[in-house]
Automatic annotation (TrEMBL):
Residues 1-28 form the signal peptide. It comes from the Bacteria. This is Peptidase inhibitor family I36. Keywords: Signal.
Amino acid sequence: MHKIGSIPGSAAVTALVAALLLAPTAQAGAGPNCATGYHCGWDIGFDTGKISFFNEDADFRDNRFNTGVIVDNNIKTVSNSTSSDYVSVWFTGPDFTGNWFCVNPGSWVGSLPDDGTPGNGVGLANEASSMTLFAGGPFNFCY
Ligand SMILES: [Ca+2]
Ligand SMILES: [Ca+2]
């Protein structure tokens, strides 16, 4: 590795920017307990009530976990196993409205903020009502 300081002036900055732009950023990831290509959510932990999404879903009120329980306002754990660079973005309202959080490729979260009341729009656990995908991850502001 050469030191950036050894390259005179703006050429160093230009070289650094070029290197960053060329560096591969797409990170397909295997999130825990979620099949490749899918974005998964659970009712409790990784053990109870699982649902897997391959694409976005605008309204969880007609989705059920494998236990039969309605998914809307009931997700506490999520895992992202995208086969590409898609970040999963989970919204507290249907049609991608309200507050949101995002999960990077290969990442997961099981400790979302929770005020203890599902579906009241406060906190993020037991609030998700829709989910979409955003390419170009990972992002440093996502789980
Ligand atoms: Ca909600
Ligand atoms: Ca709540």
